[in-house]
Amino acid sequence: MKIGLGLPNQVRNVRPETIPQWAAKAEEAGFSTLGTVGRYAYPGVSDTVTLAAAAGATSTIGLFSHVMLAPVWPGELLAKELAGIDGVSGHRLSLGLGIGGRPDDFVVDGYGMSGRGKRFDHDLETYRSIWNGDPVGGGVNPAVPAGTRQIPLLFGGFSPAALGRMARVGEGYVGASMPASMVAPSFEAARAAWTEAGRSGQPRIVAIGYFALGAEDQGRANVKDYYSFLGEEMSNGSAAGVSGSPEAVREAVKEYEDLGADEFILIGTTDDIDEVSRAAEIVF
């Protein structure tokens, strides 16, 4: 199982200049992938900007969104942004996508919560068309350079619609940031949906989980704040799930490995750059 590192782009009031530093240090340490968490109505750094910054600061490590709230964007514009990030990175980008569930993230006129699933399905076709180099805007020009590829898509979510998208057009599934025992059923559901759709092989399974090694209390507080929209009980549960010791990190790695995950991404909960080396010393 590969081990990736989630950038702290959605830590409240993150210092943006630490993001490329995290990225470069994670690549040097040997992590497989750099990940981002997506949300817009929160004082962090957009996942598209974060992925672009990480692309510029590195040369070999994978880039991944886990997950990006795709329907908050006009599909044509997001497709072009992502093609650019993938291109400048040398085709290192994979996308974990979801439909979102917080009304305040839907800030663009005409792109609200209502109908977002249907809009997302249409946008997936738009992405493919744009990345294929089809003309846009009723003219003759494509939106992207020649050589643009079809970026690999993975999907998060628990609904039959989410699993159906994954099985039809995706390459894999992204689990929720919960303990392995709680995520296990969704992994099995993803594999079952894949088989039922007649896909060969197995979906790529990516697990994610938070860690806080240098300032455990602050890390837990940051996670609780991020999930406060869920209410006291759920946000406290999310904070309690943060791996706050070397032993807890090792146990999380083992549990996800036992579940057959292909990759486990440890997500930073503070922007302390030393968290990169602390995590690397434990997992490598």
From TrEMBL:
One of its GO terms (molecular function) is oxidoreductase activity. The keyword Oxidoreductase applies. The keyword Flavoprotein applies. Keywords: Flavoprotein, FMN, Monooxygenase, Oxidoreductase. It comes from the Bacteria. InterPro entries: Luciferase-like_dom, Luciferase-like_sf, SsuD_RutA_monooxygenase. Its EC number is 1.-.-.-. It is an enzyme of class 1 (oxidoreductase). Residues 14-262 form the Luciferase-like domain. This is LLM class flavin-dependent oxidoreductase. The lineage of its organism: Bacteria, Bacillati, Actinomycetota, Actinomycetes, Pseudonocardiales.
